[in-house]
Amino acid sequence: MAEETLVLFKNIRNPKYDKSLAGYKRSGGFKSLKKVFGMKPEEVVQEVKESGLRGRGGAGFPTGLKWSFMAKGTGKPSYLIANADESEPGTCKDRELMLKDPHLFLEGLMISSYAIGCHHAYVYVRGEFFPAIKTLNAAVGELYADGLLGTNPLGSGFKLDITIHTGAGAYICGEESALLDSLEGKRGQPRVKPPFPAVSGFNGCPTSVNNVETLACIPFILSDGGAEAFKSFGPQNNSGTHLVSLSGHVNCPGVYELRMDVSMKDIIYDIGGGIRDGKKLKGVIPGGSSSPVMKADEVDVLYNFDDLAKIGTMLGSAAMMVFDEGTDIVKLLHRITRFYAHESCGQCTPCREGTHWSSQIIQDFLRGNGSDEKLKRLYRVGGNMLGTTLCALGDAAAMPIQSFVNKFPEEFRKYYATL
Amino acid sequence: MPFFQIDGEPVEYEPGEKVLSAVLRSGKIIPHYCYHPGMSVVATCRMCLVDVIDMGNGRPAPKLQTACSLDAMEGMKVETLNQKVEEGQKLVNEFLLVNHPLDCPVCDQSGECILQDYSFKYGSGKSEMDYSKRVNGWRDIGTFVAMERNRCIQCSRCDRFTREITGTNEFGMFNRGHELTLDTYADRPMTNKFQGNMADICPVGAITEKEFRFKRRVWKLKKNYSICTGCSSGCNVTIEHDRNEVFRLKPHENQNVNKWWLCDEGRLTYRMMNERKTRIPRPLGRVEGNLEGVSWEEAYGAIVKRVKELKPFPHEVLALTDTRASNEELFLLQKLLKEGFSSDNIFCPLPKWGQSESDFFINTLITTDKTPNRAGALALKIKGDEKNAKLKKVIEGELKVVFILGNPFEAESEIKEIIKRTQLVVHLGVFHNSWGEIADVVLPGQYYSEKEGTYTNKHQRVQSTEIAIQALRRTRPEWQILAELLQSLGQTSCFDSVPQVFAAMVQEAKAFSGVSFDEIGSLGIELKNKTKDTGMKVLVKQA
Q1: Do A158 and A294 belong together in one domain?
Q2: pLDDT at B364 over 80
Q3: I need a surface site. Which of A274, A279, A349, B541 has the fewest CB within 10 A?
Q4: Calpha distance B496→B508 (Å, rounded)
């Protein structure tokens, strides 16, 4: 029987929890911050490294390692940017954190800022998250009023400001370099890498961009014995608990906090309460719309970075979308492809032309004009975007196309022209 | 310098340089659209894909890399011709053509279009795109250029040009995804002075010069190197002409002068090359008060006869020239006075000139001195001052023979009034002007696109021009006229070609010593003995 392990959701699952600063402090908040101010920044980074925390934004890059890449001794200020531009279809975990327990996330942000020597942190929030923006602004206001932000919080001699910045509604601005461009006031487009943000990021200064959930893990890791405990929550290299956004045709969709050694089958049938209306499972998109789709017979696998990578898909942002036997795969793929065609920034060729072209081809199928030739073409156009683009959006658009065609070819045949 | 290998051949690179930049410098070609050596790297066209089989550490790169953004490493091995790369190029080209209208037959870029060339060379020759293409339509984006947005391949060179080169920020990207277009902000047409460069750097026919549109197919144009004579910057240009008619000037890369750029004003100077109405078509002599057509022999004979009659003293002879004349012409005019009349009364207008000071290099290309050879006149020590005080002193005395080269002191009616009273006025010029009206003999010269010559620009760099188009039948280049006058007046020196005159000038003029005509080549050479005060002042600093 799978059940939730409460680290990030410890407060949120408490029905009497008061999300104000006073409430957060009552539930043991800011103890880690206090402890961290007694440590050296390098020790903090080391602790995070030891915990094995991997970025929760989708790429799963070890967070401590990312921080240790930050250029030092450049004479430029360092920046920490919290990536709260959560826009991967199916993902809704950061919103929960920001809306229901903003101080946990902000404490993580403050500890991380201390660790990398950042004196002005930004939170880049998705523009559509109006309630979350309001909550965050109120929370930051409380912190300033309490003296936890600004100069000399808790008598530490450290100085930190936090600015909440709202995006303008572009999926691509969740890509870290596009986010930085957008934050600088430019058109949000991914930059050429290298140089990576750790060397030249926001305003050309060393910058670390971290996901909200990643930062929210930090207070726990830095609490006494936290790193060890965090590591014990999952198999090797996949430590900690993570938030799973379960959606689709399950009886109990929602955001759940799970260890990394829970199998997908348990998540769907146990946590999610099984498929809606007693139908059969057809497939699962395991990690946000960009991850390759899985068929019903593949779901008996541990839901973590490495085990999913082994079977050719990915954990991504841990947004599991479940669909039952009544789902029209072609329509589903069309919806996904249209999303990427709409959200492609358009600067680089394969993605700009490929996303739109592939959605046109699928549209053609939906009109009943499909053919073997067109299916091959769709597969080829998708493949041509894979690995040839500047940022990962081309890959994100290509992976579902190829996997859907590979795994559900018979679904496309339903739309072949019958002449 | 360290080097890496490309297709088995070593290529040198400067530390920190990108692969594409080093490869292009070495003269090899990797196809590319968005990369321009003068602007930042965006790596968005994805055409310059290369296969890195060894990253310098023995390991291959996991996938194809864009050469424009790939840091060159010691010992790196790069392949550009293998099957993987060919497939990569093919797919990028296919994507670029998905929404390109392929209206080459009616497109002005056709023939110099990179997309066209690469599609032939690297494309697959067929398209599987069978849906209607994106339509964006024509935009009047500027005073000098127009934009056909359907042809645009979104390489963003034009966007980066206004951002990084002119700093005017008038141009930007609009919309997203396949609807991405480039346009001016707020529908305002551009007004910067360098729009023509956007047509040059546009790899396709999206941005074209209004001045050139629909006039001639580019493959018919013949090209000759020259320099722009619109101001004293001396930007390197290519004169593009067909059937003795010039159609446009294009900048010609010279890192020491204009880099890749040319201003719109300079581009428009091509119009004068085709000017026929105001050209002096043949030698003219004054017969009973009227200018009438004469032969060259008659004109020379008349001049020699009058000179012999007048027997002028050195102070009674004067030569006026403008600074549009080439170094050789100025030198020969000086020689004519010195050897023919033992005089050194040679003057040119030398008003103060200036250029703006700017963070953007391109703004310094336009100077207020609209003549190409002021520095040459200074180097040859031709007299003159800001207010023409010295000249006015000379013309107070009696004058018997005056030579006018070009159109100097055009606005100084006072000087003209005095010279009108002189007994012999010889005018050498290309166009009819007010000097012709008071001249006794008019000798028709040739425009700089029709003759050879060297000019000294504001940085005192000597650059040469080629003959691009044929001159009118009965005209002669000024250097030749002056050489023939020298001979007619009994001097022994004989010049048959511009290099010969240049060699004599190197011998006799101190400023030019140590320079040889062959050294000038297509990029020019800076004078070793520079004039210190060129009369330059810096105008207001531009943003």
Answers
A1: no
A2: yes
A3: B541
A4: 18
Determine the structural domain holding residue A257 and report its residue range: 241-324
Give the chain A residue nearest B68 (alpha carbons): A192
CA distance A294 to A403: 8
Q: Are residues A100 and A73 in the same domain?
A: yes
Cα-Cα-Cα-Cα torsion A239, A241, A242, A243, nearest 10 degrees, comes to: 180
Owner of token pair 């020689």: B335
Same domain, B121 and B10: no
- CATH number, domain of B218, equals 3.30.70.20
Q: Tell me, yes or no, whether A377 and A402 share the same domain.
A: yes
pLDDT digit string, tens, across residues A293-349: 999 999 999 999 999 999 999 999 999 999 999 999 999 999 999 999 999 999 999
User: Are A220 and A29 within 8 A, CB to CB?
Assistant: no
Name the residue of chain A whose CA is nearest to B178's CA: A352
Cβ within 8 Å, pair B46-A390: yes
Q: What are the residues whose beta carbons fall under 8 Å from the beta carbon of A17, sequence distance 6 or more?
A: A11, A23, A27, A101
Q: Which pLDDT band, with edges at 50, 70 and 90, does A83 fall under? A: very high
> How many structural domains are present in chain A?
3
Q: Touching check for A371 and chain B: CB below 8 Å? A: no
Residue A418 lies in a domain: no
How many Cα atoms within 13 Å fall on the side-chain side of residue B305? 8
Nearest to B177 among A342, A350, A388 (CB): A342
Q: A105 with A129: CB under 8 angstroms? A: no
Q: Do B291 and B268 belong to one domain?
A: no
Cβ–Cβ gap B41/A349 under 8 Å: no
B410 and B461 belong to one structural domain: yes
- Looking at the structure, do residues A313 and A184 belong to the same domain, yes or no? no
Q: Angle A93-100/A212-222 helices, nearest 10 degrees?
A: 60
Residue A338 lies in a domain: yes
B154 found inside a domain: yes
Residue B201 and residue B72 in one domain: no
Query: Is the domain of B107 the same as that of B32?
Result: no
Specify whether B417 is located in the same domain as B328.
yes
Residues of B in contact with A341 (CB under 8 A): 177-178
Q: Does residue A9 sit within a domain?
A: no
Q: How far apart are CA B88 and CA B200, in angstroms?
A: 27
What's the average model confidence in pLDDT over B134-145?
91
Residues A117 and A69 in one domain: yes
pLDDT at B1 over 90: no
Q: Is the pLDDT of residue A71 over 80?
A: yes
Structural domain includes residue A138: yes
What is the predicted pLDDT for the residue at A419? Answer: 63
Nearest to B95 among A343, A346, A349 (CB): A349
Cβ atoms of residues B23 and B94 within 8 Å: no
Q: Give the pLDDT confidence score for residue B325 in this predicted structure.
A: 96
One domain for residues A57 and A137: yes
The predicted structure's pLDDT at residue A193: 87
Amino acid B363: pLDDT: 92
Longest CA span, chain B: 91
Which chain B residue shows the shortest CA-CA distance from A341? B177
User: Among B46, B178, B180, whose Cβ lies nearest the Cβ of A388?
Assistant: B46
Q: Which two tokens stand for residue A326?
A: 């009544």
The DSSP 8-state label assigned to residue A211 in this structure reads: E
In this structure, the answer to whether residues B27 and B159 fall within a common structural domain is: no
> Which pLDDT tens digit goes with each residue over A169-224?
899 999 999 999 999 999 999 999 889 999 999 999 999 999 999 999 999 999 99
Residues for chain A: how many in total? Answer: 419
Q: Which domain holds residue B441?
A: 284-542
Interchain contact A348–B (C-beta under 8 A): yes
Q: Kindly list the residues from chain B whose CB atom is less than 8 angstroms away from the CB atom of residue A377.
A: 128
Based on the fold, state whether residues A168 and A300 are members of the same structural domain: no
Token couple for B329? 């012409």
Alpha-carbon distance B105 to nearest alpha carbon in chain A (angstroms): 24
Mean pLDDT of chain A: 94
Residues B154 and B302 in one domain: no
Q: Is the pLDDT of residue A73 over 90?
A: no
